[in-house]
Amino acid sequence: MARQGLFGSSLIKKYWMALTGLFLIGFLVAHATINAMIFFNDGGITFNEWAHFMGTNLIIRTVELVLFAGLILHVVDGLMLWRQNRAARPVDYAFAKHNANSKWYSRSMGILGTLILLFLIVHLWHFWVPSRNIVGSLEPYGSDAAGRENLFALMVQVFSNPAVVVVYVLGCFSLFWHLLHGFKSAFQSLGLNHRKYNGFIAFCGAAFSIIVPVLFAAMPVSMYLGWIK
Question: What gap in Å lies between CA 65 and CA 77, rounded to an integer?
């Protein structure tokens, strides 16, 4: 009999993981698109315009709350599933052939998710917290050429530290492995898998898992190397 918990049975937990995961994937697309505005290389004017819109639009601010709720649900549900799976087989088989049954990253989603969560906390502290005037503000960074708050200047400062750049690149590396399994797994958990379409879903998942983390990693690297000013 399936064990019960905060979100119901194991099957329900997997549904929650899939739904919140797909929601967060949608957020990654929007976040990567807006951040990519730095590549206009116009002193941050285009990026700051979009950042200002995201920070002042009432609908976006409301979605922000939904996003945090989705993230918390995803993390809590993931930890519950990990604990439940560990409890189901507390002692590993002495001669278990893991590689024959699954990829290492599919067995390490809990660890990868934890690393991403720690990275996300660092990221929020660097940018979201001051931009929302929770601790500090963007006032010390002045205004850009269009007179808007200069979040871009904060990015330049943060990514001038090579240690921070390394942390962000490692965070993106963890995100790659997490997405590589999670994207396809979400469709399977929701029953949206069919041998006619599985190849296409796997291809889209692999492409997404590469493009988005590479794009995120390219931002701090480009700013540190002075390619973006």
Answer: 18
C-alpha 188/C-alpha 61 separation (Å) is 32
Question: Would 1 be classed as within a structural domain?
Answer: no
In a domain, 2, yes or no: no
* Percent of the chain at pLDDT exceeding 70: 85
The answer to whether 180 and 206 have CB atoms below 8 angstroms apart is yes
DSSP secondary structure letters along 30-47? HHHHHHGGGGG-STTHHH
Q: For residue 216, which of 1, 8, 29 has the smallest C-alpha distance?
A: 29
- Contact between 18 and 189 under an 8 Å Cβ cutoff? The reply is yes
User: Alpha-carbon distance 35 to 33, whole Å?
Assistant: 6
Please report whether residue 4 resides in a domain.
Answer: no
Q: What is the pTM of this model?
A: 0.84
5: in domain: no
Residue 120 lies in domain: 10-90+103-224
